[in-house]
C-alpha cells in the first residue's frame, strides 16, 4: 500500500458517510426507475 | 283464491331466493398455515379462521390497523378498522398466550392495496376466548451449572495468569 | 509440500480456540442483562449457564498453551476455521435450553446461522420467544459479522502476537489501515455509526407504527443489525413482512447496501475520496450485477398474476434482489410463495443474486462482486490476447483502490473460489432433491445456505431431516470461510490421523 493511504479515515467521516448514503439512495432510486420502465414496456 | 295464494307463495319464494343465495356466499374455513401455503383459487375468497393474536396492533393508516393472528404455527397479517382491534386486550408474547379470535374476511394472495403483501381484510372479528399468562418457571439447575462453571473458569484464569508470569520470568 | 503438524501445534490451536470460546461466553452478558432488566428469569438462567459452560470450557482449552504463544500462518488458518464451529457450539447452549428449539442440533443450526450472518432458522414459536433470546440471536449477527476473529482482536484477549496471522486467515487480506488493530477499530467505528443511525431511524418508524417504546427500540436495533450485518434474523415469525411498511423496507435496504460495501471503500470514502465509489471495479461489478438481475426479476414478475403491478415489482422484486444479493435474507413473502407466486424467471434471478453475492471484505456471502469483476476482466483480457500478434504482451488493468495489473494468480484464485461455490451450491441442491424436495426449492435453499443469505422456500424447518440440517450447517460454515480455510482444516486433520497411524505401525 502506498504511503499516501496513511491519512486517517476518521477525519472526513461525516461528509464521507453522507456521500455514501446519497449514493446508496441514488442507486436504489435508479434501479427502481429502471424496474419501473421495464415494467411499463413489458 | 287458491291461485292468488299460490302466486303470493311463489312470489315470496322467488323474493327470498336471491336473499338466501347472497347469505349462502361461500365462506371457506382455513387455517393461517393453509393460507400461507398458497392454495390455488383461494385469492379473493372470503375466509374464516381463528387463532391467537400475537405481539401487537400495528398502525396501517389513519383508521386501520394490522393484527397478527397465529394459527397452526403461522401468523397471518389481518387488516381491519381500529375499532375491531379494540376487542383484543391480551396479545401473545413471552409472558402471555394472547386472546383467541375468529376472523372473517377477504383473503388476498398479493394485496394490491398493500404492495403485494399476503393479507386478510377482516369484515368480522369475534373474541373466542381470553388470553392467559404463560408460565415459565426458572429452572434452578441452570443457575447452579452456570455459577459452578464461572467459578471453575475464574480459578483456571488464575492459573493462566501464573503461566503468563512464568513465561516472562 | 504438506506442512507437519505436531502436538505443540494442536496445543496452540486449542489455546486460541479456547480464548475465542471465552470471548463468546463473555458476550452473553448482553442477553443476560436484557433478561434481568425485562425480568425474564428463566432465560437469564439460560445465559448464566451458557456463560459458565463457555468460560469453563474455553479456559480449560486455553490452558493448553501459555499466553502469547506465537501463531504461525498454518495454525492461524486452522483456528479461524475451527472458530466458527467452536463459537457456534458455545452460542447454541443458552438457546438449546430455552424451550424454543427441538434439539441441540437445531440450536446449533441457529447459532451457526447467526454467527455466519446467514439467517436461516429452526426456531419454534418465535412469536412467544423471550426478548433476551431474540437479543442473543441478533447479537450473534453482530459478533459474527464483525468477524469472530476481528472481534477477539479488538477485545484484545491476549492475542498480541497472533493477531496479524488470524486477521489474514480470516480472509481480510487487504490492509485497510497499516496497523491491524487500527483496522479492526475502524471496522467497529463504521459499524457503530451505521448501527446508531439505523436504530434511531427505525425506532422512529416503529413508534410511528404504534409500537410501544421499548419494543420500538429493540426491534429497531435488531432490524438494523440484521440488515447492516446482512444477517436476516427477525424477531417475529413473519420476518420483515411483520411491519407491512415500505419505509421499513427502504431504510433497511440502505443498511444492506452499507453493510455490503467493502470496508476498504468505506475507508477511502471517509478519507475524502468519493470518486472511488464510482471507479472501483467491485462497486461497478456489484452495481451492474444488481441492475441486470433487477431487470430479469422485473420481467419475470410482470408475467405473474400476483406481482405484476409496479408497487409489487418494487417491493417484492427489487427489495428481494437487494436482500438476496447482499446476503441479508429478510423476506416479505411466505416461504411457499417463492415457488408458487414468484415464478421461474424472477426466482432464477433471486437465486443468481444469492449465488453471486455482495462485495468482498464485508459481511456479504456468495462468490462476491470483486471476483466476478475480475473474471469479467479476465475474459476481456483473453479475448484481447487472442486478437493481438503472438509476440505482443497484453496487460489488463483494473481499478481497486489503485490502478493495478490483472495477473494470472489473481484470476486463478477468483476462478477457483467461483468453482468451489458452484460445487457447494449444486451438491447441496442435489442432496435436498434426494430427500424429495422439488429441485428448484432445493437449489434455492442450498444457495441460500452456502452464500449465507437466509431466504427460505420452507425446506428449512424443524421437521427437516437431521442430515440435511447438518449439510446446511456445513454449507453455511464453508461459505463463510470461502472454503479454503475449511478444506485446510480437514486436510490437517487427515494428515494428523495418517501420521498417528504411521507412528503406530512403525512402533
How does the SSE layout of this entry go?
The complex is a heterotrimer of chains A (42), B (169) and C (507).
Chain A: H1 13-41
Chain B: H1 2-23, E1 27-29, H2 32-36, E2 46-59, E3 64-71, E4 74-81, H3 82-85, E5 96-97, E6 100-108, E7 119-129, E8 132-133, H4 140-168
Parallel strand pairs in B: 1-2, 4-7
Antiparallel strand pairs in B: 2-3, 2-6, 3-4, 5-8, 6-7
Chain C: H1 7-27, H2 29-37, H3 41-62, H4 73-96, H5 104-115, H6 131-145, H7 148-155, H8 163-169, H9 180-208, H10 213-228, H11 246-260, H12 263-270, H13 276-279, H14 281-302, H15 310-325, H16 337-342, H17 344-356, H18 369-387, E1 397-400, E2 402-405, H19 408-434, H20 439-450, H21 466-481, H22 484-506
Antiparallel strand pairs in C: 1-2
Describe this entry's structure for a reader:
The complex is a heterotrimer of chains A (42), B (169) and C (507). With 42 residues, chain A is mostly helical. Chain A contains one helix and no strands. Chain A has one helix spanning 13-41. Chain B has two domains: 24-133, OB fold (Dihydrolipoamide Acetyltransferase, E2P) (Beta Barrel), CATH 2.40.50; 137-169. Chain B is elongated and about 120 Å long. Chain C is an all-alpha fold and 507 residues long. Chain C has a domain at 1-173. Chain C has 22 helices and two strands. A two-stranded antiparallel ribbon of chain C has the order 1-2. Chains A and C meet through helix 1 of A and helix 9, helix 11, helix 12, helix 14 and helix 15 of C.
